Amino acid sequence: MPPVPIVTSPLAADVLRIALARRGVPSEAVALTLAHAPHGPDEKLEPTGVCLQPGGLRAFREMGLDIEALAAQSTVVPVIRVVHPKGHRLIRLDLSGLSSRYPMLVIATPVLRAYLATAAQASGIAGPGDAPRAAPGQLPAEAWKLMPCPGILLRTVRGSFRDSREPLLWDHARAYLCVGQLPHERLVLSAMPLFEIPIEHQRTACQAALDDATERLRDHFSIEGPVEEQWFSLPGVGARPCRDGHTLRWSSAALRLHPITGMSISYWAIQANRLAEELARSGHLSDRFVRSLDANNRWMVRRNLLSLNVHLRPAWWRSTCYGPCLWALQHSDRLRRVVFRRLWLT
């Protein structure tokens, strides 16, 4: 039987190779090709860092990966701290009820790829980076139907939290902000502007919001070193059909998500196991299976847009109901589990 051609992204390809090997599917059963980004070959397909949610960690365990070793190279997040929109107080949300051990891991993409490469080598799997890249124009970009979305500003500094290493989240008046601790006494601050801000002013608005957060939250973290900034313009959120003739578009080749939810790698890990099981069972990908992938991608787009609309669109509830909602989440374990399981991949 000829190999199944799959167009995907580098990180998702690494995960898929391991999932296939775990189920005894030979590497010759698929022909992996790395996709170009939908808006040109220079667009960044891989994030600088990823968030592994409980569903993704469970999928990694099914692949036989050592989660303890992965956690040792990651930042374990058992609690997140949410800043009230007015910036005058913090609310701690315990995530331990979502998972028995690791509610969430945050890890740099190069570190994760090195970990996957080591795991693949131990299993005798071809290493990452050996898949060819699709020629420009080989995959038509016009099939994309993307909803425009704001970009993201990343600011990396030398510094640390004063009181704890728990991440800070803040629905600021101009942007959605996140502050997290990195290894080697570094902090990463991210800002995602509201939809109402024009494209040409988004970066400036994010810089102003981060400057404001640095000043108003100085009791919680300190900055000691120079600032490094990167601005990423995102093409949008959306999906296109997974089937392109005999080729399967998968991961970033078929689905574009905004990083606000941190779902991408967990979703690819779950789908990689499904792909591997289907190939192990039948040796090919049926039309019914591909339709289920399309349906799942559309569902993920809806969840992603829900989070974007909650955090990045100004609404009356941000000034009236947001505080009481955070209070309820803080004091009700059941409500917190329901909400996070709705928003995350658990």
- Tell me the radius of gyration: 20 Å
Overall shape: globular
Q: Give the name of the CATH architecture of the largest domain.
A: 3-Layer(bba) Sandwich
**What is the number of domains?**
2
Helical percentage: 25-40%
How much of the sequence lies in strands comes to: 15-25%
CATH superfamily of the largest domain: FAD/NAD(P)-binding domain
Largest sheet: 8 strands, mixed
- Overall mean pLDDT: 82
- The counted number of beta strands is 18
Distance, first to last CA: 36 Å
Report what the structure shows.
The chain is α+β, with helices and mostly antiparallel strands and 346 residues long. It has 2 domains: 4-76 and 95-144 and 237-343, FAD/NAD(P)-binding domain; 152-232, Alpha-Beta Plaits, CATH 3.30.70. 37% of the residues lie in helices and 23% in strands. The protein contains 10 helices and 18 strands. A hairpin with a 3-residue loop joins strand 11 (175-182) and strand 12.
Question: What labels describe this entry?
Answer:
346 residues, alpha+beta, FAD/NAD(P)-binding domain, Alpha-Beta Plaits, 2 domains, eight-stranded mixed sheet, globular
